Amino acid sequence: MGSLQLQDFAAGWVGGAASVVVGHPLDTIKTRLQAGQGYGNTLSCVLTVYRNESVAGFFKGMSFPLASIAVYSSVVFGVFSNTQRLLSQLRHGDPARAPALADVALASVVAGFVSVGIGSPVDLVKIRLQMQTQPYIKANIKLQPTVPGFPVYRGPIHCFRTVLKKEGIAGMYRGAGAMLLRDVPGYCLYFIPYTFFCGWITPDGCISPNPSSVWLAGGVAGVISWGTATPMDVVKSRLQADGVYLNKYKGTLDCILQSYQNEGLKVFFRGITVNAVRGFPVSSAMFLGYELSLKAMKRDQTETNP
User: Fold this and answer.
1) Is pLDDT above 80 for 137?
2) Tens-place pLDDT, residues 77-101
3) Taking residues 167-192, what's their average pLDDT?
4) How far is CA 133 from CA 32, 52, 238, in A?
5) What is the largest CA-CA distance in the chain?
6) Is the pTM of this model over 0.85?
7) Which of 270, 242, 268 is nearest to 256 (CA)?
8) Is-contact 76 108, C-beta < 8 A?
9) CB-CB neighbours of 139 under 10 Å
10) How far apart are alpha carbons 290 and 299 in whole angstroms?
11) In this structure, how many other beta carbons lie within 10 angstroms of the beta carbon of residue 64?
């Protein structure tokens, strides 16, 4: 029983790492579209980044999410499947029993809350690092980075320390409210469609879904969950990018109102294409990495203790 629980965490780690490698280039584009200026549409943003920074530009700041998202998915998947198993145990006395919809939803909510606790500082550092090479634009003052051409933060650790020193714990959790509003419904719309599609595509009598149905179900779940999470994601990106140079938003509501007043309703759907498009490969890589490594660990386990 005990080792089974840990396998979910390990498998989540593999899934997370796979998803970062697949998704980071699109994530860079998404962040720049949402919080940067002068990129126009998705395609022109890709071309601008490529022209100015070549391929390396798309992988800027990847080492940090690679380390952190792997841990982060490990926790999300571990918490999700263990909560789900606990609920099945409490409800039916059998942890291995297929969970009811309400159980999947509750486990997703728990995973959402836990993920914000860990993920909020991680995301803040990632976004600050992605945004600091941006020219700072505000009405009529152009604030140059502290030293022109030199970034404010030297790297993830330096960024983490600087934010902690200047803005305290509250600074590390800037945008956490928006992140809760994004992730709690987001995970429900992630795990529920996944569980549903997987069960639907998998032929009866098969214990575990085959890789192609995991790929499809994971991808569809990613598109649904990221598409619907985009408005809160925009708010979160803006709150977290805010503060590289100076603070413009007082909080989640203020950021929503200011963004709406200045740019209208369409601003909340900025990056929705790249989010939905990115949702498919990232999420299918994540679920494939998770399910396949889980299967491999279970196979090893049955071989070692028959």
Assistant:
1) no
2) 999 999 998 998 888 887 777 788 8
3) 90
4) 10, 12, 15
5) 72
6) no
7) 268
8) no
9) 5
10) 14
11) 18
